[in-house]
TrEMBL record:
Pfam families for the chain: MR_MLE_C, MR_MLE_N
Coiled coil: none
Protein's organism: Frateuria aurantia (strain ATCC 33424 / DSM 6220 / KCTC 2777 / LMG 1558 / NBRC 3245 / NCIMB 13370) (Acetobacter aurantius)
Keywords: Magnesium, Metal-binding
Alphabetized Gene3D superfamilies for the sequence: Enolase-like C-terminal domain, Enolase-like, N-terminal domain
Domain Mandelate racemase/muconate lactonizing enzyme C-terminal: 133-225
An annotated Gene Ontology molecular function: magnesium ion binding
Cofactor or coenzyme needed: Mg(2+)
Protein name (database record): Enolase superfamily enzyme related to L-alanine-DL-glutamate epimerase
Domain of life of the organism encoding this protein: Bacteria
Length: 358
């Protein structure tokens, strides 16, 4: 059995699970649930109990208008885990509710979240190139030529990571996401070996990813440690912060519980003096929401963008540059191309208050 890796070049397609909420007045809010090729599990949750809990929810300009329904849903569904398809479904709905709330308030989402900067940096998140040094070097040079000042690899071997560092000027930041491969002893050895590469961070070095004590130990090895994409909810971040386990917190809006949960993590990180750099290997509403969330954080918080090219982009007007200007339109500000939605749609369902669900 081969391992599944969403950053692998063997992956020939990348799926997104979009959620659209419609108000009685005709406003539409968009969210995204994590899942990629296992999206059917999150879709089943959305089409079942999770979606049913939000039918008829009231949404206003004040986020408190939907906070009670969101909290009630979390409490009702807690027995199904603090991560996984049910939480991913909740994440999509929460993001769509925030989009609606910002539209009702007449504000771009980042301003509705308290942000002031309308421009953010994007950094290139590369797929894995199988630890092939020459190909890794070629790809990071492509990303640099596209204007990116920070680049993230998904490689695990020193020769490949070193090739990237040598191919780039010293002032280009380089980070590495290794996707939870090592036990503590092996991680200590690997990180010690990479010390000369001056990495911005090593992301998720341990298996299991919630080995908080192990992460805290690795922080003493001299290379910043980033983690958080795979934690089990907001409370798990609290434990990471309290135990001093990470240098960079990486909550993921489509996995942790949406924008509401992201804001809770942001507040905790600020109290503990931990930098936040949201995870975002998405290209749907989760990417748009993360852009607005990054703008609500102090610099150097930036938007992670998959360094991929699409035959037809879901958001034709979304910037492809290393600096992104957020739109002035209320809410997320970008809407998906209806032609792309129609031509590439795999499956879908709808829930209605009148009971005519499909």
């Amino acid at each position: 059995m081969s391992a599944y890796n969403a950053a692998s070049p063997q992956l020939k397609r990348m799926e997104t699970l979009l959620v659209r909420l419609t108000t009685d007045e005709g406003l539409q809010g968009w969210g995204e649930a994590f899942g990629h090729l296992v999206n059917p599990a999150s879709q089943a949750a959305l089409g079942g109990l999770v979606g049913q809990l939000f039918l008829g929810a009231r949404v206003g300009a004040d986020p408190a208008s939907f906070a009670a329904s969101r909290l009630a849903a979390e409490q009702a569904l807690h027995a199904f885990g603090r991560t996984g398809p049910v939480v991913y479904a909740l994440s999509a709905i929460d993001t769509a509710l925030w989009d609606l709330s910002a539209q009702i308030a007449g504000q771009p989402l980042y301003r509705h979240l308290g942000g002031r900067r309308d421009r953010i940096e994007a950094y290139a998140s590369l797929v894995s190139y199988g630890n092939r040094p020459a190909e890794v070097a070629r790809q990071v040079q492509r990303a640099q030529a596209a204007g990116y000042r920070r680049i993230k690899l998904h490689e695990t071997e020193y020769p490949a990571i070193s090739a990237a560092r040598q191919a780039l000027p010293a002032d280009i930041g380089l980070m590495v996401d290794v996707n939870c491969p090592w036990n503590l002893a092996e991680a200590e050895t690997r990180i010690r070996g990479c010390r000369d590469l001056q990495l911005g961070w090593i992301e998720e070095p341990l298996w299991p990813p919630d080995d908080i004590d192990g992460l805290a130990s690795l922080r003493r090895r001299g290379t910043p440690i980033a983690a958080g994409e795979n934690v089990s909810g907001v409370e798990a971040f609290r434990q990471h912060f309290q135990q001093g386990a990470i240098d960079v917190a990486q909550p993921s809006v489509a996995k942790i519980g949406g924008i509401s949960a992201m804001r809770e993590v942001f507040a905790m990180a600020a109290r503990h003096g931990v930098q936040v750099m949201p995870h975002c290997f998405y290209y749907g509403a989760g990417m748009l929401a993360t852009a607005h969330l990054a703008a609500s954080l102090p610099a150097p918080a930036a938007l992670e963008v998959p360094f991929l090219q699409w035959p037809r982009p879901l958001y034709p007007d979304f910037p492809r540059e290393a600096e992104i200007r957020l739109p002035d339109q209320p809410g997320l500000g970008w809407v998906p191309d209806p032609g792309v939605l129609n031509d590439y749609r795999i499956d879908g369902c709808s829930l209605r208050l009148d009971g005519e669900n499909a």
